[in-house]
């Protein structure tokens, strides 16, 4: 299934897709991808965060030139976030060295109250030390998530061992910052790797 649209209306679309769809395109679809094609539905916002090395990272400008997967989650997540990062790490391991050079995984914490750069760095290192982790203000985090159609909900009382609700989809963006694919939670590493190999080939075609 290929989705092509301007940014306006993308939020409602992606909410519907993630609520109703399985790991990706369904049997019979003519798409070569397992993930759902969302060409141009979203654009990476120009919002600056702090990365897991303590440096400024502009989500749009610092992702230019490489195909980028973006996932919002939090380090205290008991299931979806570690599983997604582990699946991404396994998929990246299946890429050739040249393909890895042209692909980046960006994790944005939906829980910046607890997830500082040092904690994110330690957490991501257990999956792949080359993954980029970002933290920012609640306002910037929610603005970026909203721009990309990602839902986030936090309890008003954020004391103790609280949980953060967040969209479980991973969005993939072109080197120009335009959305290309969406993987739902549960997409297998082999399928992610196959999608990436095809996508990276297309992104590298003049």
From TrEMBL:
Keywords: Copper, Signal. The keyword Signal applies. Residues 38-201 form the Thioredoxin domain. Residues 1-21 form the signal peptide. The keyword Signal applies. InterPro entries: SCO1/SenC, Thioredoxin-like_sf, Thioredoxin_domain. Pfam families: SCO1-SenC (PF02630). Belongs to the SCO1/2 family. This is SCO family protein.
């Amino acid at each position: 299934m290929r989705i092509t649209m301007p940014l306006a209306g993308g939020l409602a679309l992606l909410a519907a897709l993630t609520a109703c769809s399985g790991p990706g395109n369904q049997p019979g679809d003519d798409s070569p991808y397992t993930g759902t094609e969302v060409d141009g539905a979203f654009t990476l916002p120009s919002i600056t965060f702090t990365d897991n090395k303590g440096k400024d990272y502009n989500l749009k400008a610092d992702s230019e030139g490489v195909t980028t997967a973006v996932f919002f989650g939090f380090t205290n997540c008991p299931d979806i976030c570690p599983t997604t990062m582990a699946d991404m790490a396994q998929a990246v391991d299946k890429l050739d060295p040249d393909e890895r050079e042209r692909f980046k995984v960006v994790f944005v914490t939906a829980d910046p109250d607890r997830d500082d750069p040092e904690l994110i760095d330690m957490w991501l290192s257990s999956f792949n030390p080359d993954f980029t982790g970002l933290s920012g203000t609640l306002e910037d985090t929610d603005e970026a998530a909203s721009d990309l159609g990602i839902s986030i909900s936090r309890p008003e009382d954020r004391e103790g061992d609280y949980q953060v609700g967040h969209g479980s989809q991973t969005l993939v963006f072109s080197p120009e910052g335009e959305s290309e694919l969406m993987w739902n939670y549960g997409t297998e590493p082999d399928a992610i790797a196959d999608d990436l190999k095809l996508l990276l080939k297309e992104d590298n075609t003049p």
